[in-house]
Write a structure and sequence with these properties.
The protein is of the alpha+beta class. It folds into two domains: about 70 residues, OB fold (Dihydrolipoamide Acetyltransferase, E2P) (Beta Barrel), CATH 2.40.50; about 150 residues, Recombination protein O, C-terminal domain (de novo design (two linked rop proteins), Up-down Bundle), CATH 1.20.1440. It has eight helices and eight strands. The chain has a five-stranded mixed beta barrel. Strands 7-6-8 form a three-stranded antiparallel β-sheet. The radius of gyration is 20 Å and the shape is elongated. It starts with a strand and ends with a helix. It binds zinc ion (ZN). Zinc ion binds next to helix 4. One of its GO terms (cellular component) is bacterial nucleoid.
Length: about 250
């Protein structure tokens, strides 16, 4: 079987048969692919750690005859922190599920790979806020899906928004002025500061975004906005979101 080498992160995994695992891997060079890792649930398997959720490895894969390629070798890329923290693990799960849902198989895209790999790395990094990482990934993915929201003019009447709070409406596709906000009871009130964060994310300015310190109320608002948009644009809700909500409420 011909083999190839690529970097990959594990988005999803299921146990299969006696000792195998089937993995959904986002790779740098081949996009999202299905992989079978044989024998990795046997004790002492050298490759077991590379099949952990959210692990990032350089993988050697053999082209399978069917849908799945076969993991033949792997080497860890960078530190792989264990996700003992429930909140971090829950955020990483939402990031991985979002990537899995949104990305088509076998469509390589370097920027998307980096975006997802960075978000998952931030979720395990004690110096990073995993919720801020999730908000960033959601914003960038919504943009990449072609649903970039209207953030400078009212999405309904097109007036330029003044420097005051506005209401985010996923149905209208962006911020609404005070006059139009009543039309969508599900619209989320956004402070001037939240609007600024949305605009920074829309500009794709990762360096500036990382410098912003988001407080609890801002994070909650940004999460609500992203959640409404994802509900609007994906046909099913992300399964891992209610888990994250339950952990946040504790
Ligand atoms: Zn308006």
């Amino acid at each position: 079987m011909p083999t190839y080498v690529t970097d990959g992160v594990i988005l999803r995994r299921v146990d299969y048969g006696e000792a195998d695992r089937i993995l959904t891997v986002l790779t740098r060079d081949h996009g999202k692919i299905g992989v079978i890792a044989r024998g990795v649930r046997k004790s002492g398997s050298r490759m077991a750690a590379h099949t952990d959720l959210f692990a990032r490895s350089r993988m050697q894969l053999a082209r399978g005859r069917g849908e799945l390629d076969v993991l033949t070798q792997a080497e860890t890329l960078g530190p792989h922190a264990p996700l003992g923290d429930a909140r971090r693990a829950a955020c990483a799960s939402v990031c991985a599920e979002l990537a899995d849902r949104v990305l088509e198989s076998n469509h390589p895209d370097e920027e998307t790979f980096q975006l997802v790999a960075d978000a998952l790395a931030d979720c395990t990094d004690d110096d990073r806020d995993p919720r801020a990482a999730l908000v960033w990934l959601s914003r960038r993915m919504i943009d990449r899906l072609g649903y970039a929201p209207q953030l400078y003019r009212c999405a309904s009447c097109s007036t330029i928004l003044p420097q005051v709070s506005a209401w985010f409406s996923a149905v209208a596709g962006g911020l609404l002025c005070v006059g139009c906000a009543v039309a969508d009871l599900g619209a989320v009130e956004c402070s001037v500061r939240v609007i600024k964060v949305l605009r920074v994310a829309a500009d794709g300015d990762a360096a500036l975004y990382r410098r912003l310190r988001l407080d609890e109320a801002e994070l909650v608002t940004l999460e609500m906005v992203a959640e409404r948009e994802l509900a609007q644009h994906l046909d099913r809700q992300l399964r891992s979101l209610p888990v994250l909500r339950a952990i946040e409420r504790r």
